[in-house]
Write a structure and sequence with these properties.
8-stranded parallel beta barrel, two-stranded antiparallel ribbon, binds ligand FNR, Alpha-hydroxy-acid oxidizing protein
């Protein structure tokens, strides 16, 4: 693997998230870039995610007062500078030698939320100590409950403030672009959190059995596993990878405190709808659940997949999200300029979001109502 050192200064032609992608394409080995950028299959969902944001229009109001304006908000009892959280992204040492430590330090500097992946290339304990800002741990169910629980306990012990359990990737989507480029994880980049966990014994398959359907999926988690996980931790539990409103309801019934409406940035099932398109219906489902369960704290709705601008954050909030997760742009910024790049990206997106608030006549994230946008009829 070629090592790409961070630039000591941000190139002057990087002024928005997409500029980081352009530079990352140059900075990274081709196969690594393709691994990060690609979606699954024909990338219909990957493109659909961007498309959806472009179809929503912002309807600005003029001459509004700005005497209590702020982009800040609280999530699960913690205060953040804006409704943006760095998404869980595996193996960040692919992009930079400091990996997750650099990204977490940048999020900390900007008072931005940060989610550490199960598949982080730096241990969750080291990531937790990168700055003091609250962080969440993203959990992939492991082959045994003992191993899953070991990760949860380590996350609790290290001070993570929430568990984000990802449910849309029991089997990894097939990313043809990444395959064509011959991407393989280099030996020096590993899943640091899984080093000490005993690997599961291989499941013997009969001759006519499928590796995917009978091998991987036979051991894949189901709703009982989610109920079990809920019973094991007092931390807020956020279920990531929800696209169907019935799944949203089921997760809430089992005690989830939050949802991430997400299609994994178009990397899992190709052909599923953009998460933004499903957001209005899922928001209505969450609101209906809250109305019929007044004793429960209302669940938090997060959204990811396709956010590239502060105005996209605004649109997601107008369609029902409380906050959003940022995926690939953070990876690109990390590869171009390390922690400095990620901090610059987060600041740029926050300024874009603030500008959108200002020009649309909204003082705070809570002021962004559905009336602030025009939504195409074919959205949910
Ligand atoms: C991801 N994503 C992801 N999600 C997760 O729950 N655990 C993980 O380890 C990873 N790893 C990962 C690696 C890479 C290279 C990418 C691009 C994505 C998905 C991620 O959290 C998020 O859902 C999407 O990236 C959001 O879409 P955008 O912002 O990339 O369009």
């Amino acid at each position: 693997m070629t090592t790409h050192y961070p630039l000591s200064e941000i190139p002057p032609d990087i002024v928005c998230a997409d500029d980081y992608e352009r530079h990352a394409r140059e900075a990274l080995p081709h196969s690594t870039y393709e691994h990060i950028a690609s979606g699954s299959g024909d990338e219909i969902t990957l493109r659909g995610n961007r498309d959806a944001f472009q179809q929503v229009q912002i309807l600005p109001r003029m001459l509004r007062r700005f005497d209590r304006a702020s982009a800040q908000l609280s999530l699960f009892g913690d205060r953040y500078a804006s409704p943006m959280v760095v998404a869980p992204l595996a193996y960040q040492q692919l992009a930079h030698p400091e990996g997750e430590l650099a990204t977490a330090a940048a999020a900390d500097a900007l008072d931005c939320g940060f989610v550490c992946s199960t598949l982080a290339s730096c241990s969750l304990e080291r990531v937790a100590s990168a700055g003091r800002s609250p962080k969440w741990f993203q959990l992939y169910f492991q082959a045994s409950r003992a191993n899953t629980l070991a990760l949860v306990r380590r996350a609790e012990q290290a001070g993570y403030r929430a568990i984000v359990v990802t449910v849309d990737s029991s089997v990894t989507g097939i990313r043809n672009r990444s395959q064509r480029a011959g991407f393989a994880l280099p030996d020096n980049v590993q899943a640091a959190n899984l080093r000490e966990l005993a690997p599961p014994p291989p499941r013997p398959l009969k001759q006519d059995e499928s590796i995917i359907l009978n091998g991987i999926m036979a051991d894949a988690p189901d709703w009982d596993e989610l109920a079990w996980l809920r019973s094991q931790t007092a931390l807020p539990l956020i279920v990531k990878g929800i696209i169907h409103p019935e799944d949203a309801r089921q997760a809430l019934l089992l005690g989830a405190d939050g949802l991430v409406v997400s299609n994994h940035g178009g990397r899992s099932l190709d052909g599923c709808p953009a998460s933004l398109r499903m957001l209005p219906l899922i928001r209505r489902t969450v609101d209906a659940f809250a109305a019929s369960h007044p004793h429960r704290t209302a669940a938090t709705v997060l959204l990811d997949s396709g956010i590239r601008r502060g105005s996209d954050v605004f649109k997601a909030l107008a369609l029902g999200a409380d906050a959003v997760l940022l995926g690939r742009p953070c990876f690109y910024a990390l590869s171009v300029a390390g922690a400095l790049g990620v901090a610059h990206l987060l600041r740029t997106l926050k300024e874009e979001f603030e500008l959108t608030l200002a020009l649309s006549g909204c003082q705070t994230p809570a002021d962004i109502s559905r009336d602030a946008v025009i939504i195409p009829r074919d959205f949910s």
